[in-house]
Amino acid sequence: MADLENKQEQTNEQLKETNKKENKFRTRTILVLIAIIIFLLVIGINFRTNYIELFEIGENYTEVFSQNLKYKIYIGAANFIFIFITVCVTNSFIKKGLKAFFEQENKEMPKLPNKSLALIFALIAAMVTPNMFIEKLILFRNVAQFGITDPIFNLDIGFYMFQEPFIGLILYYLLAVTIILTVYIAIYYIITFNRHFDGIDGQTLKRNTFIKHLLFNAMLITILIVGIMMLNTQNIVLGNFLTLNDELDTAIVGAGLIETTVKLWGYRILGVVIILSVWMAIRFFKKSSAKNVIKSLLVVPVYLVILFIVMVGYKMFFMNGSELDKEKSYITTNIDYTKTAYNLKIDEVEIESTGTITKEEANRNDEVINNVPIITEEAALNILEQTQANTGYYTYNNVKPILYKNKLTYIAAREINSANTTYNSKADEYTHGYGAILVSANETDENGNMVYVSKEFESKDIKEPRIYYGMETSSTISISNKKQEFDYPKTTTQNATNNYQGTRRN
Question: pTM of the predicted model, to two decimals?
């Protein structure tokens, strides 16, 4: 009778264990199905949104839409596979570490979640990453060589525009994945410990793969951070190395003497110092030497302080008073590269000063003299605002220098002065500016006044003079085919009018 009762109890325990396993399997299955449904909904909504946006822009962009969709599918699939494999491998190491604790407690190791968690994380990555990667991946895939290298690293200019952004994104992505996995490992262990154990032996924990895994990830995070830092050191060619003491505080872009010597090599050495510092700290941590761990980690801030002192001292004592002379070769390089970038093929002619200019010298340098402005942009804008804006119809936001019939002139667009009109008239009648005014930049009349090259409303040089979208446009424009819109005043009693003929309606 006793044997029968024992067998019944064992059968009941087995049934309970079986039901427990089935419930766990059912729960995991439901979570995976929910993740898949959410993934499909997000993908479907995103696809429809992009399709509607494309349809609004125009069907001519169908090919672009198809290409972007193809790239997003590739990115999503690649990240799904990468994250799924990475999480599965991580889980296998976690289970290996947990197995030692179960063996120590003489407990049977339960079936812990693996592929279900990996699938959920992989689906999240497949949803999030396509929009992160697509722009930089397209640039990377369509790399173009400019045939011009920077003078510091001897890398083609195309590298900074097409390749470096994608490489940087990959490093940041791997860093984020490693940090998330590190947190995931710690959470996985904590949850398992709380559910299956009353306490954990410290020595066993220290010898376990848990700590080894975290330390390995810490070293990997350090290497990725140093990799990002090394990549960013190449951006010294894009920074400002000299600021001129002029009215605009003009900054010269590029790498100067300090950047190519102290800063560049200082950061390169810093990368090595960081890796060695963390490596030594990990070694001392394994030996339970907390004092030496702190000393190892303090090496980095001490080095940064020394590097800062060296940079400040170099600038104060070596560069002080002769910065322009020492940066001369770098400034020359900056000018040459700027000319190449903007295709400025200008012959520089040095004119020797002989005192009072003679008629022969003036005739010989006629082209140079005719293109030297004697009126500043600010002065031209002030005069236009005083003499042309007093009618109340138009306003002038800025003037720009242009060559008009081989003469240096300033051009200013006539924008409608919407601030002085009611809402109804602004929305239906005074809807747009009209044309532009041209003034000479190097000529005045006998009274010293600015000379107008063109200020008439009708101009053969401007094909479409009406300005619906300008610097002054800051509110909604309402147009009507029935109501005439103001163009410009013809006389004191008559105005030229027009109806909107464009195709854009919103």
Answer: 0.67
Question: To which residue do tokens 């810490």 refer?
Answer: 218
Tell me the residue type at 315: K
To 5 degrees, how large is the angle CA 479–CA 495–CA 502? 30
Q: Which two tokens stand for residue 60?
A: 């001519």
Q: What is the pLDDT of residue 407?
A: 81
What pLDDT, on a 0 to 100 scale, did the predictor assign at position 9?
Answer: 56
- Which helix (H) or strand (E) segment holds residue 233: the answer is helix 209-233
Which contacts (CB < 8 Å, 24+ apart) does range 265-273 have? 266/307, 266/310, 266/311, 267/229, 267/230, 267/233, 268/230, 268/233, 269/303, 270/229, 270/300, 270/303, 270/304, 270/307, 271/226, 271/229, 271/230, 273/299, 273/300, 273/303
Residue type, 187: I
Instruction: Round to whole Å and give the CA distance between 128 and 122.
Output: 10
Domain boundaries defined on the chain: 16-233, 370-498
| Total length of the chain | 506
Do residues 333 and 254 lie in contact, with contact meaning Cβ atoms separated by under 8 Å?
Answer: yes
Over the stretch 388-436, which tens digit does the pLDDT of each residue have? Answer: 765 667 788 888 888 888 788 888 888 877 666 666 566 667 777 888 8
DSSP H or E segment with residue 225: helix 209-233
Q: In whole angstroms, give the CA distance from residue 79 to residue 138.
A: 16
